[in-house]
Amino acid sequence: MKNSVRNVYLFPYILWIALCVVAPIALIVYDSFFDIEGHWTLENYEKFFTPVYLKMTLSSFWYAFLITLFSLIIAYPTAYLLTKTKHKQLWLLMIILPTWVNLLLKVYAFLGIFGTFGLANAVLNAVGIGTKQILFTDFSFVFVSVYIFIPFMVLPIFNALEELNPSLVDAARDLGASAWTTFRRVVFPLTLDGVKAGCQAVFIPALSLFMITRLIAGNRVITLGTAIEEHFLVTQDWGMGATIAVFLIMIMAFVVVLTGNRR
Amino acid sequence: MEQEVIIRFDGVTKQYDGLVVLDWVSFEIERGKFYTLLGPSGCGKTTILRLIAGFTEPTEGTIYFHGQPVNHVPANKRQVNTVFQDYALFPHLNVFENVAFGLRVKKMKEAEIRDKVAEALQFVNLQGYETRNIQEMSGGQRQRVAIARAIVNEPEVLLLDEPLSALDLKLRTEMQYELRELQRRLGITFIFVTHDQEEALAMSDQIFVLNKGKIEQSGTPKDIYDEPVNRFVADFIGESNILAGRMVKDYLVEFAGKQFTCVDYGFQENEQVDIVIRPEDLEITAPDRGKLRVRVDSQLFRGVHYEICCYDENGNEWLVHSTKKAEVGEEIGLYFEAEAIHVMHVKDGDDEK
Known about the structure:
The structure holds two protein chains of two kinds.
Chain A: H1 2-31, H2 43-48, H3 51-84, H4 88-96, H5 103-114, H6 119-126, H7 138-163, H8 166-174, H9 179-190, H10 192-207, H11 211-215, H12 224-234, H13 238-258
Chain B: E1 5-16, E2 19-30, E3 34-38, H1 45-53, E4 60-65, E5 68-69, E6 80-83, H2 95-105, H3 110-123, H4 139-151, E7 157-161, H5 169-186, E8 189-194, H6 197-203, E9 206-211, E10 214-219, H7 221-226, H8 231-236, E11 241-249, E12 252-255, E13 258-261, E14 271-277, E15 283-285, E16 292-301, E17 306-312, E18 317-322, E19 331-335, E20 342-345
Parallel strand pairs in B: 3-8, 3-9, 6-7, 7-8
Antiparallel strand pairs in B: 1-2, 1-4, 4-5, 9-10, 11-12, 11-14, 12-13, 14-20, 15-19, 16-17, 16-19, 17-18
Helix pairs in contact in B: 2-3, 2-4, 3-4
């Protein structure tokens, strides 16, 4: 009796999972076994292991890694300082606020800032460095991505720092540890869960970026995300696009497992 | 060597956001004694501990260690270790690594660390628990780990911030004996913070009674129990009967509408005073043989004694601890020795510095 009632409550969840998670993944896997003419084939998988795609995978990884790294380098001290401020919730809100603005709008804003006649170049001119090509470079791509992902890195680290018992810091100091040793041996290890969560929240979406690569990096940076977009929208090779997506999903699952085992 | 002063507070004041937590406090801590800072919550006792540990700096005044001012010396540079109220054990390290933390920071050799940690764990009866996680340890065991982690660094002074408050009664009593014993064996100075007067009386060589950021009285447990300087101390240290009275002349005091001989002197004639009589000093007798005539209002059985609450004709409440039983509503006499009366000055504002 009781069980059946519980199963009824479970139904919306199962429906959701089936329609929005299992079905799309199944369709992607299914699509990946067809070539551009609609014949059943394994060729897509063979093609993935050619230098072109492997290089793309590697470059995706590399940029996602860079984006995650810089986000972490900026976000950890930021979160740390935030926990020390008086109105921390307000400051935190200030950092989260940009995520409420549409991603595309933010990217377009950077097109303006980094453009030849934009603010960045105006400043460079003023200090005498002269106009530089900023848009469509690796730098601008990583910069804009980091800017967009920082809130997702700050939030879990901030929460982990907030949960840290302040008397543990006192205890470490009391036992003779310098501020740096205290950070290295107590604060950082105990906020590692937050760091992992933040890295997941940044690394995984960064792997499949496509809009920023196109607009800011001018397709000079080709990642798996851009490749999928190209295959689905331009070359119409859905099979190949789906195959890349399958690999992307596997890589993401792997990353989750790797950074997982959270308590 | 016996009377060597390790720590000296000289007119130390501490404010937090304009709120005075410690108000011009001065005292000395000598080597090898067990000190207790006793007071209600918010009296400033933990602040004193944090000042000694170096977690916070005084707003005014100077703290000396061995005669050297240490106001700006950070916690990690002080020969002092703390046992925290919540123990503050590192959850990501096991018992061994927790205890070894201070030694590793000092970059001690691995073999030496192993020896010292083993010794410290043996001191607190935790041999064989080295590889346990902190989460697997009970409250009492965590307490011991916290103590081992502090004493392994061979501090000159061990600070204990209400370390027993999280334990149940039986364990607490047990730990009181153990801590006292530990202090004797180590021979180092303990500064113990508590709001539990029984704990303070049982363990200390010297007690500082604190109230509202000031030291009300300092002395041995016996001094403080027998000769409280004012109403606050008398009330805070154990249950007492405190009444307003008048010092007629030396050795004669008036309260509850009668005059009694006492052993106190040196007051002004007719000075308004507070008098204290401890409940265990009151003896139940027949109504006509007592010094006071009271009516029993209620009675509680406390195990070792009965706690009897009585009222005299003037409406003063008298608390009596007696092994004899009384009947509620019965009229009884209360007898007490002249020595049982303790006369105190009425505290009038901030006269004393």
